[in-house]
Batch of 2 targets.
Target 1
Amino acid sequence: MKDDSVKHPQAAAEFLKDRAQAKWHDSAIWWVRQKRDAQAKQLPEWEELRRLAREIKAHTLSQLDDYLAQFEANAQNNGVTVHWAADADEHNRIVHGILAARQVKKLVKSKSMLTEECGLNPYLEQRGIEVVDTDLGERIVQLRHEAPSHIVMPAIHLKKEQISELFHKELGTEAGNNDPTYLTHAARANLREHFLTADAGLTGVNFAIAETGGVVVCTNEGNADLGTSLPPIHIASMGLEKIIPRLEHLGVFTRLLARSAIGSPVTTYTSHFHQARPGGEMHIVIVDNGRSDILGNEDFYQSLRCIRCGACMNTCPVYRRSSGFSYSYIIPGPIGSTLGPSRDMKKHGSMAFACSTCGSCSNVCPVKINLHEQLVLHRKKAFEQNLLPAGKKMGLLAMRFLTQHPALFDLGGKVMRKVVPIIPESLTRHSAWSRAGRDLPPMPAQSFKELYQQRSQDKQDKEGQQ
Amino acid sequence: MSARDTILARIRQNRPAATALPDIHAVPFIRYDDQFAAFATLIRNLGGDAVQLPDGQSVADVVAARWPDAGRTVDLTVPQHEEVDDPHAWHDVDVAIVPGQLAVAENATVWVSHPDNRFRSIYFLTQKLVLVVPREAMVDTMRDAYARIQLAEHGFGAFISGSSRTADIEQSLVMGAHGAMAALVIFV
């Protein structure tokens, strides 16, 4: 389970203690960002695709109740049972109710951040149902009793040596065999047994099509397909923002999702589920859990356009250098840092500050969510609700005072440019700047304002001469 | 009030101002001069291979040449194909030969939704997946594909590209996560 009491700065400092691991984490995730860029550049229409995706989602949110009702009616016509859950607890009760009524002992699950959000696994386990996560990365973190550290690459915080050790203990693989192919195929053999003996399968939902009443699930591993084609019961849990109006709109979203997420042209399997397999039954649970509240918030409702590709965290300089476990909300990175505080500012407020406001997240987002702007707005809320640590609050108040008094600001700058170069190193060694192994930067001779005035003057003089 | 009605009422109250649905067909998308070449180049990086059926050879010939020691082989492309009563019964299939209705050049996927198949588990349990696609059934992008596909198989259909794969261990790409370990697309 996710430790939702962590505060980003402290947790990130802890993560950065292992410099080699932190460096690896940063470069492994940056590599995925680069693969995403390579894919995007192959399509001349990439920016147009982002615009279309944004507009389709924006339109859908503006008529979400109508599309949900249409989706429900069409799903019911297909013979699917549709359930509605106002919150996490209701979702868990519905899923357990379906399973308990059919004496299900083992449930195989494919990736679903929603069920992580709802805490479904412990809920079912406490009631005697074995839950097997089947995505390789999710299985790894499940066996380690951890939460995923990334929404698409759940085990990206781990090295192969750690996974080898875990599999040796849990699956009986050879000690010290760290070969990813060997380890993956060992998990394959083990999970095949689970697929073949499961009583029910649960999947998340990437897209729910109002026009056809079906859901689309994208995986590379094929675990969602095995988990739904073998057992007689398929439950699909979806956040209510997953709706798209028409089947043809997948012609936009399936082109963006895998390219943005992992830098692949598509996932191996893009599966469209409209009915259970013969002899089976299919259920869809539509979950609100705070989403309809976010919809009503002018500043933050755009976050509901998210298709959970993870591109924003792959590009985020803070995420790459702090890992998913430094974030208190189950979804880390930029998108999590707006969804978390929207849900519970007191608990997740620190996430909004885990941001350099560089805006890279907004620039890669396939549905063009204004992520970095939302984080700034959350900071404002955190300040107004008096949730900042005293030191940070004092710093901000001092800064506010200074920026409101330009003369004082100028004087402060002057003093700093003179004083910093003569401070003995022993006094600055423990500053936040120097602790990370950096020298203090050389102080410029002039302030920006002075430089700007100088240049304007020079330009005027030059024009005067002509 | 039921959860459903409460949720829908709250959405109605909170939903943002109406915006228009864009026309996704108004934007020009990429075109490929040689669709087969684009498809075949791409699928090699996705744990698969693509060939055009040579004159005078059958699909079975091509499959036999590729995997001479194949175990249980099931061919769904023939009219009187083998059928089972339980989806688990496909668990030991080594090679499954299945009809694909459409291929997409931009991402090397094949649309699979076979009106004459009972249990879709065969596509995912088989060790090696052979997709047989008519040569003329090729489109450039997913937009073209969605204009043509049909959900013909018990409400199910999937785009499949190459082998099942994962990079969940240190970003190392491994073929054969849960589904097929190898994939072959034969254009006929």
Target 2
Amino acid sequence: MTALLDVRNLVTTFPGGAGTGLRAVDDVSFQLARGEVLGLVGESGSGKSVTGFSIMGLVDWPGKIAEGQIIFDGSDLAKASVETRRSLRGRRIAMVFQDPMMTLNPVLRVGTQMTEALHAHEKIGKAEARARARDALGLVGMPSPEERLDAYPHQLSGGMRQRVAIAIAFLHRPDLIVADEPTTALDVTIQAQIISEFQKLTEDSGTAVIWITHDLAIVSGLADRIAVMYGGRIVEAGGIAEVLERPRHPYTRGLIQSVPSENSRGTRLTQIPGVTPSLINMPEGCAFRTRCARATAACVQRPGRFGDEDSYHRCFHPHEEALR
Amino acid sequence: MITSLIRRAIQAGFVIFAMTLIVFIGVNVIGNPVDILINPDLNQAERLRVVESLGLDRPLWQQYLSFLHGLAQGDFGDSFVYSKPALDVIVERLPATLELALCAMLIAIVVGLPLGLYAGLYPNRVSSKIIMTGSILGFSLPTFWVGLMFILLFAVQLGWLPSNGRGETELLFGARWSFLTADGLAHLFLPALNLALFKTSLILRLTRAGVQEVVMQDYVKFARAKGLRENRIIFVHILKNLMIPVVTIIGLEFGSLIAFSVVTESIFGWPGMGKLIIDSINLLDRPVIVAYLMMMVVLFVSLNFIIDICYTLLDPRVRLDGKG
Amino acid sequence: MDSNSVPVADPHGNPPTAAGSAGASASRSIWPALLRFFSAPAAVVGALGLLIVLFVAIFAPWLSPQNPFDLMQLDILDSRLPPGSESFSGVPYILGTDGQGRDILSGIMYGLRTSLIVGLASAIAAALIGTTLGLMAAYVGGRTEGFMMRLVDLQLSFPTILMALMVLAILGNGVTNVVLAIIVAEWATYARTARGTALVEREKEYIEAARCLRIPGHRVLLRHLLPNCLAPIIVIATMQVARAIGLEATLSFLGLGASVTQPSLGMLIANGYQYLLSGLYWISFYPGIALLITIVSINLVGDRLRDVLNPRNAR
């Protein structure tokens, strides 16, 4: 079976720095099968969101996709026309944003913002569009959806707004949803509700998901596979259980150890020393070497991929043992 | 919302009342009404008689009360020049000024809004830079001088358009209007364009600044992620958010257009209130001056009031919260 | 570069202030600021234009071919000559002559003087009054502040020309009254800016400390609040000088302004108005160009000043 999405050597740059510009996404490759959930994990500034926007074709000007391919269902999005990309957006590839307080237009009614998404891709009547919008709201667990259609965003809570955004994303039963930290801005209890509803919807519609987050705990319960990003590159990728149990890359290991868990009760949480380097002064070779206890002179070289396409890391000195 | 409207109305009433005090003090205390009102050729006995007949010998508070009393009845006294009630003289000229100001505002909106939208959406195009440089000129060019140059170019050199008066007028709603006849329109064009110049630059710059702020918002990106067509994003999502500041400014600036029509009317011999007030100041026609000033005060206060209402209608956040 | 950002009061009515504390840091690093200032070509053009205008205005008596107000030097036979002609006695009139045979170029040089003096005097007076009131409002606070800011809001809701007309309607015509009118029309802008910046400063700890040390009020105002509010005030003042010159020209053009013996640029333009319809363009045209150069130069300089002095714009 061919992959639904096959990102090959994607490079997204922003002007600045020397030479070809700042590489916010640097040689990123991964595949996604239909219905699969990929957790794209990294700190802020690691390039995970830009990767998401690159797939959507929504990289903010003056950033651009400089190299690589984004093959979606057999055709390369990086080379697709503006109109082709638009017609795919929302219909076959949807996105949910991080901050629900900001993603809905404050001066348009919820219903309008939902039906316009339908009208953009289908020729349907007003009444039908409204009915479908109402059903979609019902599916995401919105109480009294009919009335909510006439509400303005500011009348809804953050959790409700994110439900609306998710309902919009699922309107066309897309093949792929890019979820950019959709629960980060929400209360923990609401987070859990939203995640479980999200999961239910993706299972029902067979939608593949790229779940972008910095929160390993969410990914561990949600994703089939995981890709850890650092400094614009994927430093480690693999099946979720495999990576969480036996992280090879020192950064992945550091990330996991900095999350409190039942095993670590009573022990001191370890933290990764230093701070994330900015794009402007990214170290040569392995971007993590300046913070890495295992770094040697060899790390000045750029580490290639060790492993196969589905499971690999980029480290000259990987950990071999399982975590505790 | 109703309570806030009532509060605004009370505030507006208070401002008008305060302005009557200021105008009264200005005219009757700081200025010397005896010098202004009385023909210097009169002898002492005649002077005293006039002072008495005008009530200028009474205590100030009595004078003020009778001033207020007259005001309430729209009685500002008779114009010395036209020997008619001052208010009538002004109201006769009102349609001409309104017509000019409305046309100028129309030009400013029709030219400024699209150009500002364009310059804001595509800030890096050469055409946008030309537009913005042009708008600096619009700010810096002295309006009256531009008016003269219009006359020189279009009336004297090219002979295309007339430069003086209203031309043929037609009766509508009990007032005479130039825009109803071809000749009147030809007379209207240059003054309206002249008056519009500054406001065009203003609206252009505000629109551009607004667009640049709105396009950065997540909800615009989300609208793109829904696969909406560019037209819908620009004309619904961006423009609707833009309308709040733009409508405010259009409302506020309409009053200032009426005030600035003083200059344009003087240049183009447009028989409106502006030309009247300049003539009245030069001829020391005090009742007309006072009537004009009070009329302007009422106009501005009511404009501000109307803008508040429009604001609440446009912005659902203000409308439903009932405050702002 | 950033030449396309002339200040516009934003729709919520906030003045274009630099609501930070640029003053303290700006005074320490004047050279980098100067360098930054001149890194924009538009600012260089503006500064150059302003220098030329100032030079001409100051040295008008020595630079001008004739003294346009010395009736002895005027010859009615030379009236209304087009640009480039020569006088009866062979002196060239580069920009032509007006209805009284006055050399336009000399008229412009002297007119520039009047315009600049009126513009500067009124803008400076308005700045002094407005800043003082604004700072005091911020310092005193409470009801005084509330009342003063209400007044400022009220004032700013009326266009400047209307305020000026009100003053002139009450006081009558004349140069001094025009200066007064401009002050009345413009003090509020300064007051709002000064208060806005002072409010930010007021909350800072050093003011608190100064109060605790029982340093007298006027000292806190002058030594602590004022220096920190200076940067935005300077920016506003620059722009307001341009506005004052424009307003003076407009009022003079309307016949409400400067005296006939010392005509400003606005008056020169007004004098040419009557000849315009017969195609004698130069009497109005060239003074207008001079006015335009003056205003644009000041605006360009002010625009750049704002970018340089505003910490928020320092990218």
